[in-house]
Amino acid sequence: MNFKKILIGFIFLLSLLFFSNSKVNAQIIYNYDTGDYYIPLPPLPPPIPPAPKSDATTNFTANDDGTYDVLFKWTDDRARRYSLAISKYQWADPGSNPDTTIPTWTFHHVPPGIWYVNMKFEVNGVWSQVTAWKVEVPRWVAPTPTPIITPPLITESFIATQDSGGKFVLFLSLIIGLLFIVFFVQKYKEKLKSVGLKKGILFIAVCLILIFFLFPRSSENSPCNRSSPYPMPPEFQRALSLRDQRLIENGTVFLKRDIRNCLDIQYADLSNTSGVEGVFLFDPKSTINDLHIYVDNSYHGYDDILTAILLSHEMTHVSQFINYKTTSKQISCVDKEVEAFQNELYFILSLNSEEKKSIIDRVSNNPYSNNAYFGVYQLLQVYLNSQNNCGSISNNISRNSDEFKSYSQCYWNSSKSQLQSLVEQSPYYQKQCNNRIQSTP
Phi-psi region for residue 48, left (φ > 0), alpha (ψ -120 to 50) or beta? Predict the structure, then answer.
């Protein structure tokens, strides 16, 4: 027997023994033409794709400890997962665990100096090559608090009307009553003299009271006739109380007519409404005793501040509905939404300092993490743009001064213009307003 073949066979047996013990599923191939054995190499891993082209921007927010929070945003034409890290070394691998699925990330407490943001994109199920951006964190400068100025009150529709329908009826009743009394006094002047002054005054007072109570008045002037509230989750009651308290602290004067008993606020699945998180059912055939608001189920896990912000929007639609029922005056669908967003922003600006800090920190760090955050983020951008358009103003300035009134007028005009553009450019509101909807988000 050929020694070469014996040696090859011996190596073959050793290979079988090795691969069976090491539990490697290897295929050993024998070439009958040459009498050789060989083990094919395992398949190569898929090639690492290059990172997609992307532009990035940075924004620095100074902290009190000598560092900055670095808001890093980049462009991408599709939704995907990203792995990223900030490092002193360029091209450092940020790891294989995804960090986010949205093109923005905030690095907290980054000292001044030269840094690199290293990132991998997920491309067709595999991580791309590492791409890097150079970030120059500036020399630290102590942060200067930016005053958040609360503009003057933009009241809800039903607050602004001051129950004009009821007051008109009351005024008309008094005029007719006075004319009746004048006529009565002139006709029965002599008889009244014989009766006496005190009895005459008493008679006139009784006449006025009877006229006031017997004169026909619209039942809608007392908006809510329910004696007990609808059952609702306690978090909605807390959010409504927070909203009322902050608005009153900021100078809002509510009419002495409580509609709380007629509010029916419940959770609902609104996932098929293109991101809408709350809906008020605006049905002209309904009465003020049935004011239905539905809040998306995602708000089960949110705090009272976010819920109160949403309800500030929906309560504006409630006010618009009451105004429509009491005065028959109607405004356009777009104007309804603009007014609702303005009141929503007004409530945010009416929060106390700690509540503002809490909501602004959360939203600015992850504005795209959910629809609630993104909605607040958009409103804050409207506020900042309006502030930039109208210039700065001291928080200590008198609210009655011409300078403050001029600034406030500029501010609300700017915010209204921006919000109107947002509403008109929204595919959802385009569809809803064109269809003359019966539910108002």
Answer: beta
Q: According to the model, what pLDDT value does residue 87 have?
A: 94
Rounded to whole angstroms, the Cα distance separating 347 from 409 reads: 18
Question: Which of 150, 348, 384, 108 has its CA nearest to residue 242?
Answer: 348
Please return the burial class of 106, using the count of CB atoms within 10 Å of its CB with bins 0-12, 13-18 and 19+: middle
Residues 410 and 358 in one domain: yes
Asked if 240 and 311 sit in the same domain, the reply is yes
Phi, psi (deg, nearest 5) at residue 103: -80, 50
Last residue of a domain, one of 87, 111, 137: 137
CA 403/CA 273 separation, integer angstroms = 43
- Structurally, how many domains does the chain consist of? 3
Domain interval for residue 114: 56-137
| 337 & 259 share domain | yes
Each residue of 120-144: pLDDT tens digit? 999 988 999 999 999 999 998 876 5
Residue with tokens 């005190």: 198
Q: Provide the 3-class DSSP secondary structure of residue 52.
A: coil
**Closest by Cα among 314, 322, 272, 316 to 295:** 314
How far CA 24 is from CA of 11, 21, 31, 40, 439, in Å, comes to 17, 8, 21, 13, 64
* Backbone torsions φ then ψ of 8, nearest 5 degrees: -65, -40
Token output for 60: 């620095």
112: left (phi over 0), alpha (psi -120 to 50) or beta: beta
Q: Is the pLDDT of residue 32 over 60?
A: no
Of 310, 343, 342, whose CA–CA distance to 417 is shortest? 342
Nearest one of 316, 313, 251, 317 to 282, comparing CA atoms: 317
Tokens of 110: 């980054």
pLDDT digits (tens, 9 = 90+) for 182-214: 666 666 666 656 655 556 666 666 666 665 555
In angstroms, rounded to a whole number, what is the distance separating the alpha carbons of residues 260 and 225?
A: 11
290/435 same-domain check:
yes
Co-location of 385 and 432 in the same domain: yes
Roughly what angle, to the nearest 10 degrees, separates helices 353-365 and 304-327? 110
pTM of whole model > 0.85?
A: no
Distance of CA 330 to the CA centre of its chain: 26
Give the pLDDT of residue 13.
Answer: 59
How far apart, in whole angstroms, are the C-alpha atoms of residue 255 and residue 239? 19
